[in-house]
Amino acid sequence: MHDRRDDGTSPFAEELERLLRKRGLSWRRLSDLIGYTPSWLSKIKHGAPPSAELARKCDQVLEAEGHLIALAASTSGPVRLAQLPAAAATFVGRDAELTELTGILVHHGEPGTPQTITIDGPPGAGKTALALRVAHAVVEHYSDGQLYVDLRGYSPDGHPRIVDEVLEEFLTALGVQIDVIPAGLEARAKLYRSVLADRRVLVVLDNAADAQQVQSLVPASSGCGVVVTSRKRITGIEMRGDSRITLGPMSEDESITLLRKVIGADRTAAEPAAVRGLANRCGHLPLALRIAAERVATHPHHSVSLLVEELDTEEQRLDGLSTDDSVAVKTVFSWSYRDLSADAARMFRLVGLHSGSHLSTGAAAALADQPVARARRLLDRLTAVHLLEGMGNDRYRMHDLLRVYAAEQAAEEEPEAERTLALRRMVDWYLHNVYAANHALAPQRHDPVLDKSAYAIDVADFDYDSALEWCEIEMSNIVMATRTAHAVGEHVACWKLPAGSFNYLHLRKRWSLWVASHEVGVEGARHAQDAYGESWVLNNLAHAYRELRRLDEAIAAYEKSLAIRTEIGDQVGLAWTLTGLGNAGFDQSRFDVAAEHFERALAMFRGVGDRHGEGIALANLGDAIRAQREFDRAVAVLEQALNLFQDIEDRYGEGYTLVKLGDTYSELKRPAEALNFFERALAIRRELGDRWGEGETLHKQGLALYDSGQPEPARECLRGAVAIFDELGDPRAADLKELLASTA
Fold first, then answer.
1. From 50, 206, 472, 693, which residue has the greatest number of CB atoms within 10 Å?
2. Measured distance CA(263)–CA(298) in Å, rounded
3. How confident is the model at residue 245 (pLDDT cuts 50, 70, 90)?
4. What tens digit of pLDDT does each residue of 484-517 get?
5. What are the DSSP calls for 448-502, one per residue?
């Protein structure tokens, strides 16, 4: 539902008018600056919803610092968010803190400042559990929902969440199209604050490293609330003086209540002194209490006092070994760890080497060199005693303290060669699965050659849907595996992991992960002295920069790739890099430069006999000629491309070219012929299962139907395109929704 004033204008149009007056510009001058026709801007002036691209260009030209983009993002109504993880089922105690913190969050903050609370304290004190319980208690007061992120400030791998990436995730969740999110921390933070300016959203920032990591994630709206947890006392953010709580150990009564929940009321009542002693030996810390209670519960025939004696012995052994962690916590970990079977203990140790935010059964099986079914049984055993937490969907996560402890045990009990071998198996598991998944997403694309694995790893048999789901869940772990590959000397895998992820990254536009993985991949290829790999990853990286509109960086990376490929004589790679430079020329509206690059690529593809590449180059060249409005010549070149693809029976290339022919005939004002080309392209792309291509064709077909005076069939096509782009998470969906709304 679009927010229009009684006079038909919109908040976006009003703000645009204000900024134009401020800068002394006319609407016609704005038309010249942003490349949109005066008639189209007239529709915007009178309340039509702006596209994301138009909003981005206006924001840039008028130096609105994200405010116009935010207004455009809000024209279809605020997005309702529900990102909070479930609160702990065994949460007990902390009544005073819960009452105090919820009391703060149910009120508005001061003007320009959200209502903010911070919870700090030692590891294992239950900061996250309290934060989630408080957040769930106040959700009804935040009508636009909740944002949540684990900032991993104390992650054992030393890689806390990058604030740029978090802002990108938050902005997309808030309805901002990915292709208009600016690069750079400051620009993203400004846009984030603008989007939240008139919303009531609760933001939970869990496990923050320090105030610097938090500052850009705090809104500037009094209607928002913020909950921060950290091991350190967070200062430097605007908040009420009584809004900081340091969480220490639980009281004795609270500790006993928690133990009773797990071990049962009868055993607690039968040995009250022993249960009290157990609580004391756990340091009254919730994490230790839960693990110890589970250990007691799994030995129902042993007295609690006997088990406490064992814990006393273990504490004496470990006393003095602890640094940041309390002796109590490490003691309980050790006590439960030594109660595991040999195979379960080994799995626990090796899982500690996995530094990602979550772990799949397949990755764990590779680490431990076990069949998947057996690995799952071992992981479930660790979950049962609270040394792991099940997340569903065959995935698990481990508390940071437990991961540190597990890694320490691995260092003590596993030879370095075995630890390295386990990590190499894990890297190989990610590598082969990411290749398999990405091939399922785009089988027509050529990937670097991947040798057969030297290990007995499990590789999934993906279809399109399962491949997309797997990549969505695992992409952050692919970045982790890329770093791990670099660390253990698997430099070829280090560049092939991001290269093998390209189809997914290109489809879903996960910019931050795309850039992060490929920047590490470039380093890996250089360490491997693999010029072929370096040029491949640079080319992919350039493509990301280009789509992020960081054209200078894109062209620089393309040119580095071009130089390497020229030096090593990689003619096929050289042709594809020229194709990228041609696309960059298109982005700059330098269509003559684009055509020149496509012509060079065409000659190279012909020189090496790559007919698929030749056809793509011809199709791109025809499109560049069309953009220069040489329509007859464009048709001739595109028909040459079409004939080539038909000759080699390349159905993907045929559909790719038919769409460009349809575009050309649309510009020639010959809608019947344009629609014929779109119909043929649509049939091919559906036959191939090319969902993105199907959506693109429906989009173009819908526009052509509007031009030919057929509004209802046009809307039907556009609705079909919206459904596909929504499914794929493509930002075009929002543009088409706005178009449909404006023509309703």
1. 50
2. 9
3. confident
4. 999 999 999 999 999 999 988 877 777 788 898 9
5. ---PPPSS--------HHHHHHHHHHHHHHHHHHHHHHHHTT-HHHHHHHHHHTH
